[in-house]
Write a structure and sequence with these properties.
The complex is a heterodimer. By secondary structure, chain A is mainly β. Chain A contains two helices and nine strands. The longest helix of chain A has 19 residues. By secondary structure, chain B is of the alpha+beta class. A four-stranded antiparallel β-sheet of chain B has the order 3-2-5-6.
Chain lengths: ~220, ~150
């Protein structure tokens, strides 16, 4: 039986296949002019930086980014400019860390996740009757959390708890399928300064790049 | 002409007044954190890690994880007499000792003091309860002691 998590992981591929099959010679000129648009996307998040690493196990990542999904709603304020609100979910995989700890003879369970919720400003840089490309930038809050279970007790990870300021920037590509529906590809670069903040003062910036694909409706 | 000048003067006065209010507001905002910190009555427990390993410290249920060697963390709370602390080595270091301690901190309960005033009566003031602070240095030897 396919679990929900597995479905979320494979859904972008399914979505692309279904949408690619339904691509027609539809014209999006009118669609790009609609005031509102909203979409749902899923995919994979890439990441880089010292925030991922264990503080003492050399070469072992404490976190790895994994599947990601996103929701957004956007409102046009002029022909080329829109303001929007996004919610991006980043699953932070702890398997590498847990496996390392277990290899040292300790029993550990851990999980972590991050929600990024920026307000964005996007500007369309290319459009024709089928394609629309926009660049975007925004800022907002990121909510990270995690749990560990070790030595018989379960506790929250204090170094990634609560709300942190976040910046995002990215590119959107929309391909009209059948109005009001478009196939949408998003590449977003997420920065969360102090996203990891240990109680003894050490801080790291979370840098992640969710690459997600999905459906976008114009209305 | 006179009326015009008077109007200009009124406008200038209003601008000055507004500017003064803004300055006072900014000063208030800047000084507010200082006022708050100086009226702080909280209890503090500082835990210093001198074990040479990374530590997990849990104070009254609040976790402080992966504390690096030679660094310390500070736990604060409302005024109280004791902290319940559990300390263990962070996972994956091939060190598994764990200790549990109750750490007592200075605590000053509410007190009332009275003095005679100039009109022959008494004036009393109440000092709110306040906490103190303690530094607990944890060494490798501390970790070897059996739990209480």
């Amino acid at each position: 039986m396919i679990k929900i998590l597995d479905f979320v992981k494979i859904s972008p591929t399914l979505l692309v296949l279904i949408m690619a099959a339904s691509v027609s010679s539809a014209n999006g000129t009118e669609m790009w002019g609609k005031k509102w648009s909203a979409g749902f996307y899923a995919g994979y998040a890439f990441s880089t930086g010292g925030w991922k690493e264990s503080r003492y196990a050399e070469g072992v990542n404490r976190f790895n980014t994994d599947f990601s999904f996103a929701l957004d709603i956007s409102m046009k304020v002029s022909r080329d400019i829109s303001i929007g609100f996004q919610t991006i979910y980043l699953n932070l995989d702890t398997d590498e860390w847990v496996d390392y700890v277990r290899s040292q003879g300790d029993g550990l369970w851990a999980d972590a996740e991050c929600w990024v919720t920026p307000l964005t400003l996007s500007h369309s840089v290319f459009r024709d009757n089928r394609n629309l490309v926009s660049i975007l930038a925004g800022m907002g809050l990121a909510f990270s959390s995690g749990n560990e279970s070790y030595m018989g007790i379960t506790y929250e990870t204090d170094f990634m708890r609560g709300a942190d300021f976040t910046f995002v920037t990215g590119v959107d590509y929309n391909l009209v399928l059948k109005p009001p529906l478009a196939l949408s590809l998003h590449g977003t670069l997420v920065f969360i300064p102090s996203g990891i903040h240990y109680a003894d003062g050490e801080e790291h910036t979370i840098i992640a790049m969710p690459l997600v694909v999905g459906a976008r409706f114009y209305f | 002409m006179n009326l015009l000048r008077r109007l200009k003067d009124v406008n200038r006065d209003r601008r000055r007044q507004t500017l003064f209010r803004v300055k006072v507001a900014v000063l208030f905002i800047v000084l507010l954190p200082l006022a708050v910190s100086y009226s702080d009555n909280k209890s503090y427990l500082s835990v210093s890690n001198k074990t040479g390993y990374y530590l997990h410290v849990i104070v009254d249920g609040s976790p402080y994880l992966y504390i690096a060697p030679d660094l310390e963390v500070v736990h604060e709370s409302d005024p109280k007499q004791e902290f319940f602390v559990r300390v263990f080595y962070s996972p994956g270091q091939d060190a598994r000792e764990s200790i549990t301690r109750t750490i007592y901190v200075p605590f000053y309960s509410t007190s009332t003091s009275c003095s005679s005033n100039s009109s022959g009566g008494w004036s009393c003031s109440e000092t709110p309860e306040r906490g103190g602070s303690v530094l607990w240095v944890i060494t490798a030897d501390t970790m070897l002691v059996q739990p209480e």
